[in-house]
Amino acid sequence: MSPKSFLLTEELHRYLVSHGSPPDPVAAELIEATRALGEVSGLQIAPEQGAFLTLLARVTGARRAVEVGTFTGYSALCIARGLPAGGRLLCCDVSREWTDVGRPYWERAGVADRIELRLGPAADTLRDLPADEPLDLAFIDADKENYSLYYEEIVRRLRPDGLVLVDNVLWGGRVVGPGAPADDAQGAAIMAFNDLVAGDDRVDAVMLPIADGLTLARRR
């Protein structure tokens, strides 16, 4: 539960989470199970992001959602909880080892029937989606070098007023100043992606200082 945001102290982060909708026991256990994996657990989204994903799914009435980058399944759990009965979340990932961590928690939370996991390159999975079944909501949190590719495949499939959320867009604050990652391929990809969204007239977008930065873009 330590803060992912470089803008928050641990004390402020605890206050922030406790004054929103904190993880329930199932979600909290998944967070701890992921923490036990060690350093790689940093790939998991922050609890305030999870609450935000659930809330957005609910208030938008999303029924068809896609996630690119599932890791141990916490973000998928949060999105699926915001979907109505009959809603579907397609999760794209390449790791059976990590995604298997989350499956029991999806079952315990009663949302496993809303989640379809496809293992393999996400770009191929997205390209295979039918063009006549528009998406309501999407979340991208995967390999940064392919952010722009995933974004393009998703935006063209979003319904009007559909939303895409993208994680890590502030890259630890290194997107500005002398620490800007000119020699960091992932950081450079993030900066190129941010420029892409800022110039995309298909969407209205806002970059939020949630955790490591979260871009929210609405299809016009």
Q: How would you describe this protein?
A:
It contains 8 helices and 7 strands. It has 220 residues and is of the alpha/beta class. Strands 3-2-1-4-5-7-6 form a 7-stranded mixed sheet, sandwiched between helices. Strand 6 and strand 7 (214-219) form a beta hairpin. Helix 2 (25-35) packs antiparallel against helix 5 and helix 4 (74-82) runs parallel beside helix 5. The mean pLDDT is 94.
Short description:
With 220 residues, the chain is α/β, with parallel strands linked by helices. 39% of the residues lie in helices and 20% in strands. The chain is built from eight helices and seven strands.
List descriptors.
single chain; 220 residues; alpha/beta; seven-stranded mixed β-sheet; 8 helices
Please, what is the average pLDDT?
94
- The rounded distance between the terminal residues' Cα atoms is 36 Å
Give the percentage of residues in beta strands. 15-25%
User: What share of the residues lie within helices?
Assistant: 25-40%
Number of helices: 8
Strand line-up of the largest beta sheet: 3-2-1-4-5-7-6
Unreliable segments of 5+ consecutive residues: none
Beta strands, count: 7
Rg from C-alpha positions?
16 Å
General shape: globular
Major sheet = 7 strands, mixed
Order of helices and strands: HHHEHEHEHEHEHEE
The SS-based structural class is alpha/beta
